[in-house]
Design goal:
Length: 301
């Protein structure tokens, strides 16, 4: 079943002024335009999970996320579109007292929310916990946090088909690394893939993603964790003005958690001259714009 019809998301040119003409081309694949809530990479990671449920006659999905999780709201919306029920296990009981716009959106899409302590949340991948959850919720498919399963990686791989061959480099934000893994396994071996982790110490993900990347592709992937701006979900005024400038000059809205940090890092690399002049770089806009709601009026868009 096709919930969100396949369409060719636009590849938008970034003007050479932005990168001082240091390379031949920089462009952005606008996956953020796929759907307002099941946006960006989330739809690709969820589509085979949803399909699996529909084919197996499973009528409910259960997944995990924090109070600002794009994955949680995307799952709630996609499940509702597919006629499935959904349960969200939310990190931190304090989130219950201050319901975020993200969690509100989950509720609007009929997701049943369960708040657990940060300690209990850490057990989200523990086999005993998962067994207990399957016993408690019958006929329910459990999707790991961030859609990081086989179906998620396969769906993310479909993004590779949207990338024209002329691009020598692909830039993508990294959370669980599922999207990067899918891309790496489906792009030509010669394409260089840079991942940008928005959390402190995110370079540990290099080893994590390597477990799932085909041997002949491993060498073309690297994850940078330089541009975390203090940690996951953190930002400063400089990042906000970078986002506003990017919107004013390119008419592309970035999200504060992932894509803003990626583009900031990429620009620093570009101006630092680390790419050869014949490079053509495609940045993936992985969506997540719903998360900007918490910034209020700081953004011009
Ligand atoms: C979820 C998300 C990511 C991270 O994707 P992974 O596949 O978990 O690495 C990147 N960018 C945005 C905007 C996201 O919402």
């Amino acid at each position: 079943m096709v919930i969100i019809p396949n369409h060719q998301p636009e590849i938008q040119t970034i003007s050479p002024d932005w990168y001082q003409g240091k390379v031949t081309e920089v462009a952005m694949l606008r996956l953020d335009t796929v759907h307002p809530e099941v946006s960006g990479n989330k739809w690709y990671k969820l589509k085979h999970n949803i399909d699996y449920c529909l084919r197996q006659g499973i009528d409910r999905v259960l997944t995990f996320g924090g109070a600002y999780s794009n994955h949680l709201v995307a799952t709630a919306a996609a499940a509702q579109l597919a006629g499935l029920k959904s349960i969200g296990i939310v990190r931190g009981t304090y989130a219950q007292e201050q319901i975020t716009p993200t969690l509100q959106a989950c509720v609007v899409h009929s997701m049943e929310l369960h708040f657990v302590s940060i300690e209990d949340y850490k057990l989200k991948d523990d086999p005993e916990t998962l067994k207990h959850l399957s016993e408690r919720y019958s006929n329910t498919f459990i999707i790991p946090e961030g859609g990081a399963n086989e179906q998620g990686r396969a769906g993310a791989g479909e993004i590779a088909a949207l990338i024209p061959e002329r691009f020598t480099h692909v830039a993508v934000s990294v959370g669980t690394g599922t999207t990067l893994i899918g891309l790496a396994n489906h792009l030509p071996t010669k394409t260089i893939i840079s991942g940008y982790a928005p959390m402190k110490g995110g370079s540990y993900l290099n080893a994590e993603v390597a477990k799932y990347i085909d041997d002949n592709k491993k060498a073309s992937v690297h994850i940078y964790d330089t541009w975390h701006f203090g940690g996951f979900g953190k930002h400063n005024d400089e990042l906000i003005s970078f986002m506003n400038d990017f919107y004013n000059s390119q008419a592309i809205p970035l999200d504060v958690v992932y894509t803003a940090k990626m583009m900031y890092g990429l620009r620093e690399q570009l101006l630092g001259g680390i790419y050869s002049t014949d490079a053509r770089i495609l940045c993936i806009h992985t969506g997540g714009l719903q998360g900007n709601t918490s910034l209020g009026s700081k953004l011009v868009y």
